[in-house]
Amino acid sequence: MAQCSEALLDAGQVCPELAAQRVNFFSGRLLGADDLRQEQNAVSQRDRWLGTALGAGVAHGLRVERVAAGKDLAANLLRIEAGLALNGCGEPLALDRSLHLRLAPAVAASGAGGFAPCGSEAGFVMDRGEGYYLISLAPAVGLSGEKAQEVGRDGQLIACGARWRLEGISLQVDKIPAAALPSALRTPPPSNPAALSLARSLLAQRCLGDAVGATVLGLPADDLLHSAQLAAAERVPLAVVAWNSAGIAFVDRWAVRRSPSPEADPLYWPPGEHRAAQAEAMQRQFQEHLADLLAGGSTTLVAGDWFVRLPAVGILPRVDSEAGLNAKTFFAGLPTRALFLARAALEKLLRDGMAYPPIDLARKPAELIWLYQLVEDRSVLVFASGHLPPANPARFDLARYNAARYPDGDMK
């Protein structure tokens, strides 16, 4: 094969520098360790290419949550669900069974943060004090203690090198440097529900980054993990844990967790799948944050006192449901307009909302918020940024005044 260059390659020409080297097997060939190692590397490289094409993020599972002991949360114990993720290098990171991670207060000697899939519980000592800690997965490679056997010169079997190369995962727990945080987040607040909620919302805002991007062309803006130098291609973030004097203050998954998506070319508009993954995370982070507050008994919430921003579209359980909110209280001080919406149009509204920036609750003057009452279900209320067009145009025999399916509605 002829030597090729970047400037010239004839049609049909095979360039050896661009070809993957695989072992050519044939009967009678002598195979050494280097040959087999090369074959392993070639297969691993192909798998990494496929993983890179699929995109980095959590494919399924790997949910991080506090463990409940009866009606109360167990002391500083997290559960990490079995699942699969792909890192930025295209490497699959699989946890084949769920495990528990116990966080302990600082002591003289810190504990190990790694774990193996065969273990049921791991430990990590929070020896760096109060703050916010990132939990992530990373690949780990090692050699087994079991030895392989080799035929010696006298024909006897002898033990030599390790029998197995182990390719697994390790759990990383890293403190987010205080220098990378705004002053309001330098130390997690004490266990005051409203203060913790604001801190969690602000932390999620910093981790998710600017929705519009760093430029008008949609270049992804730096988020907290990048500015704190905790974003690495080989790692997959799972959750952020707030640690204060009382132990675990909260666990937030979707502030840092992402679904796999290919990185779009940042030089062209629209920004593509990076923005789609970010928008999904924004919606899920708010819904999960709100669910945790309601589960803790907080029902008289005012949005501006508990959140820094809201997603462009979100869902609130109504006060007449099992665990809900009073919409007039939640949106107190914000301009709203109440409308009716058919359930059939809800999915489109949720998808359309992903293309809009979040609602900034500190913005002055405040922006309009649409409030949609579902015609078929009064247990939930859907809110949407005023930048979205109304999602409930009147339609003959579908959304009409004489059938109590009014374009204009009310809220509780």
Structure write-up:
The protein has about 400 residues and is α+β, with helices and mostly antiparallel strands. Helix content is about 20%, strand content about 30%. It contains seven helices and 19 strands. The protein has helices spanning about 35-55, 195-210, 225, 275-295, 305, 325-330, 345-355, and strands spanning about 55-60, 65-70, 70-80, 85, 90-95, 100-105, 120-125, 130-145, 145-150, 155-160, 165-175, 235-245, 245-250, 310, 315, 335-340, 360, 370-375, 380-385. The strands form six sheets. Strands 2-3-6-7 form a four-stranded mixed sheet, with no helix packed on it. Strands 11-8-12-13 form a four-stranded antiparallel sheet. It has a four-stranded mixed sheet with strand order 15-19-18-16. The longest helix is centred in the last third of the chain and has 23 residues, at about 275-295. The termini are far apart. Residues about 110-120 and about 400-405 have low confidence and may be disordered.
